[in-house]
């Protein structure tokens, strides 16, 4: 938890009924997030674990020790690690520098993003337990991200977001829709590494049913687009996770007033003091 100790004070837990969202505070809570990731990515979505992951039933990599882990907790399930029902991994610039770079750099040339003068944040490894995939849980998770963004003055957020297939023909309309209507401006445009680059320009704009393409996109990507997000140039096939990835970029001052208020309002939320 080195990254967390260097960024005190933490923001407080946000509550919505029995659910709360806050940063992981112990190694056991990080392991609970990794166990949830394993259940979702490997047991449910049939990703391919390493032998070490399969042995302990946790999804982990070398980035985990350097980042913050945002948790959604169901307090009805007690105070133990079984209460962790949602997670997001957050890696900011200094933490990535200690690790040797961002996770996204393994798929994309992010030189333009690294050159951004303000604080930047990489989002990744997002998942929610199957029994909690509903609007209240997702809203709370996004409120946690908004609180983190405001607390640490994040100006630019980015990360790899996945479409659930490696068949680009089946994904052609969605990829082309993102390319033609949500391509990032050149100054903030990541590009898939040449040896992994998959062209997203698979259909002409006139051939795309925009309404259908938007509806078919995974909820996470639609959420980024609603916040004013853009995508980089080129998709990447991730064989381990059986997905096709796109790089999403959100400049926080582009977030519309509607969604800014939507994800940061505190009606029905209580702020509880967490450990210093």
Which key terms come to mind for this protein?
ten-stranded mixed sheet, 276 residues, alpha+beta, disordered N terminus, Aminopeptidase, disordered C terminus
Structural class: alpha+beta
Summarize the biggest pleated sheet.
10 strands, mixed
User: How are helices and strands ordered from N to C?
Assistant: HEEHHEEHEHEHEHEHHEEEHE
- The average pLDDT score comes to 88
**CATH topological fold name:** Aminopeptidase
Question: Which residue ranges are poorly predicted, with pLDDT under 50 across at least 5 consecutive positions?
Answer: 1-6, 266-276
Percent of residues in beta strands: 15-25%
How many DSSP helices?
10
Q: Return the CATH class.
A: Alpha Beta
What is the name of the CATH architecture? 3-Layer(aba) Sandwich
Radius of gyration: 18 Å
Structural notes for this entry:
With 276 residues, the protein is of the alpha+beta class. The protein has one domain (2-265): Gcn5-related N-acetyltransferase (GNAT) (Aminopeptidase). The protein has helices at 2-5, 27-44, 51-56, 93-99, 111-114, 135-151, 172-182, 210-216, 219-226, 257-264; strands at residues 13-16, 19-23, 68-74, 84-92, 108-109, 119-128, 154-163, 191-192, 230-231, 236-238, 243-251, 269-272. Strands 1, 2, 3, 4, 6, 7, 9, 10, 11 and 12 form a ten-stranded mixed sheet that branches. A two-stranded antiparallel ribbon has the order 5-8. Helix 6 (135-151) crosses helix 10 (257-264). It is globular.
